[in-house]
Amino acid sequence: MNSLDHLFDSLKKAQARLELQTRHAKDNALRSVMAALDNAREDILAANRADVERARSGGMKEALIDRLALDSGRITGIIDSIDTIIRQEDPIQKVKAGWTMPNGLFIEQITVPLGVAAIIYESRPNVTVDAFSLAYKAGCAILLRGSSAALESNRTIVRAIKDGLSRGGGIADAVALADSGSRDEIDIILNARGKIDVVLPRGGKELIRRVVENARVPVIETGEGNCHIYVEPSADIGNAAGIIENAKLQKPGACNAAETLLVRREIAADLMPLVAQRLAGKAQLRCDERSKAAIGSVPAGLDLRDADDSDWGTEFLDYTLAVKTVDSLDEAITHINTYGTKHSEAILTKNLDSAGEFQRRVDAACVYTNASIRFTDGGEFGFGAELGISTQKFHARGPMGLEALTTIKYRISGSGQIRP
Ligand SMILES: NC(=O)C1=CN([C@@H]2O[C@H](COP(=O)(O)OP(=O)(O)OC[C@H]3O[C@@H](n4cnc5c(N)ncnc54)[C@H](OP(=O)(O)O)[C@@H]3O)[C@@H](O)[C@H]2O)C=CC1
Ligand SMILES: N[C@@H](CCC(=O)OP(=O)(O)O)C(=O)O
Q1: Residues sharing a CB contact under 8 Å with residue 338, sequence separation 6 or more, in sequence order
Q2: What digits encode the pLDDT tens for the residues 96-113?
Q3: Distances (CA, A) of 161 to 26, 40, 58, 69, 168
Q4: How many CB atoms lie within 10 A of CB 410?
Q5: Mainly localized where (predicted)?
Q6: Which of 255, 343, 383 to mutate to test the pocket of ligand 2 (most atoms within 8 A of CB)?
Q7: CA distance 225 to 215
Q8: Predicted complex ipTM
Q9: Cα three-residue angle 9-47-68, rounded to 5 degrees
Q10: Counting atoms of ligand 2 from 1, which one is nearest the CA of 377?
Q11: Cα separation of 197 and 276, whole Å?
Q12: Cα–Cα distance measured from residue 231 to residue 347, given in angstroms and rounded to the nearest whole number
């Protein structure tokens, strides 16, 4: 018996009941959770302030504090995302395909919940609500293991969720928080074969390595985002500068922020001065020799450094952008396929052939033409929320919403057939 066994048991029992709930019952329970979170707003903010203070005094950098910190507006956004999930179709018991065999057997492929899920995630309190809401709607019980940096926020949020479920006729045991703050519980989760049906690690390299090397339960990996923007000679310079600024500055601590800009030689002298101007005083540029020269006179406040080779493989998660000049589309694609993490990649171009080649050859979950890679997000894709962004290829890829929490079952109806 380990410290989480009682949770595994109650989650399993709760999941068996949840799987049989109608859409109406699940949506009512989720509506009640919305109200409970709204009622708990001040408590959540107070708990979050304590987490933020602790994180700040522990030296967490500001881009990551921004991920952890809540304010009333963010709480409203979190509550609204539940409403979007409520409005989504029930993903369970959907007939995906059906056919009759020559012997009269009627075979249907129907969607069913994955079962009991566990998610290990970063210091983002919104994920606590997003992961729970998606799981509940998909008929999955969920064990939440958020970062110890967000412990107080998560405890308060999960208390409110359970309260909402109880008041709304839902199944409060379908959600649990692993809250010892110790990483020992992660090892217990990874070994919970037969108790946990799937583990979703959502975080950086070290977490993913530990999970992949030690898990005895099925895993859907998410991964770090070393994401690129590649600008072709035909790109609209004004649009390109706006997209680069957005992809770097809008949320630099997010996995879908841009880390390296690849600029084609022919456009470097036009684009780089504009990029330098837009990022001066806001981000550090780490340029190779040619992109540095293309900036010309350095605008006031620009933090300009020389790039070194280790920058191409670095996810800065900060106000830092590496810049490299490339001579061809092929060089850009090769660079991305060498250093990228198969997350989100963009080409900015008016040339449809280049766009097509980029989208076919770049090996990533999300490939964009002429848009910011910051859109890689379940909410932005219309899923209401996300469990994370899968950067591997099995079961789910890219932002994972309700469908990622389902699998299929074959339902076969006969009239006495036996196999000859
Ligand atoms: N693709 C995607 O969907 C996402 C990717 N990311 C990536 O995650 C990274 C940023 O997240 P970050 O804040 O660093 O989160 P971390 O990877 O540091 O932490 C995430 C969770 O994993 C735990 N953890 C971290 N390292 C280990 C380890 N070695 N063994 C066991 N558990 C561990 C943490 O526990 P604790 O802190 O409590 O010890 C926390 O609960 C970036 O690389 C980003 O790109 C982030 C979110 C989504
Ligand atoms: N999809 C999210 C980013 C994914 C995510 O959570 O990343 P991270 O900020 O690294 O924890 C968003 O667009 O904000």
Answers
A1: 312
A2: 999 999 999 999 999 999
A3: 13, 10, 29, 19, 10
A4: 9
A5: cytoplasm
A6: 255
A7: 22
A8: 0.93
A9: 90
A10: 1
A11: 49
A12: 6
Q: Locate 65 and state its tokens.
A: 């504090």
CATH architecture of 5-222+400-413: 3-Layer(aba) Sandwich (3.40)
Residue in the block written with tokens 């390296």: 260
Query: pTM, whole model, 2 decimals?
Result: 0.93
CATH homologous superfamily for the domain 227-375: Aldehyde Dehydrogenase; Chain A, domain 2 (3.40.309.10)
The answer for residues whose C-beta is within 8 angstroms of residue 53's C-beta and 6 or more apart is: none
The Cα 112–Cα 135 span in angstroms is 12
| Ligand 1 binding pocket mutation candidate from 66, 68, 122, 377 (most atoms within 8 A of CB) | 122
Amino acid identity for residue 185 in this structure: E
Give dist(CA 165, CA 227) in Å, integer: 39
- Which atom of ligand 2 is nearest the CA belonging to 202? 11
pLDDT confidence of residue 370: 98
Other Cβ atoms closer than 10 A to 397 = 17
Could you give the CA distance from residue 260 to residue 256 in angstroms, rounded to a whole number? Answer: 12
pLDDT, averaged in runs of 10, over the chain (420 residues): 91 98 98 98 98 97 91 97 96 98 98 98 96 98 98 98 98 97 95 97 93 95 95 97 98 94 98 98 98 97 97 96 98 98 98 98 98 97 95 95 97 97
pLDDT tens string 13-58: 999 999 999 999 999 999 999 999 999 999 999 999 999 999 999 9
Is the C-beta atom of 255 inside 6 A of ligand 2? Answer: yes
Q: What string of DSSP letters covers 188-244?
A: HHHT-BTTBSEEEE-S-HHHHHHHHHH--S-B--B----EEEEE-TTS-HHHHHHHH
Cβ-contact 81, 36 below 8 angstroms: no
Report the pLDDT value the prediction gives residue 2, as an integer from 0 to 100. 80
SS3 72: helix
Q: For residue 399, which of 337, 340, 344, 333 has the smallest C-alpha distance?
A: 344
The answer to whether residues 408 and 109 touch, using CB atoms and an 8 Å cutoff, is yes
List of E strands, 55-167: 95-100, 106-113, 116-120, 141-145
Q: State both tokens at 135.
A: 């799981």
Domain ranges of the chain: 5-222+400-413, 227-375
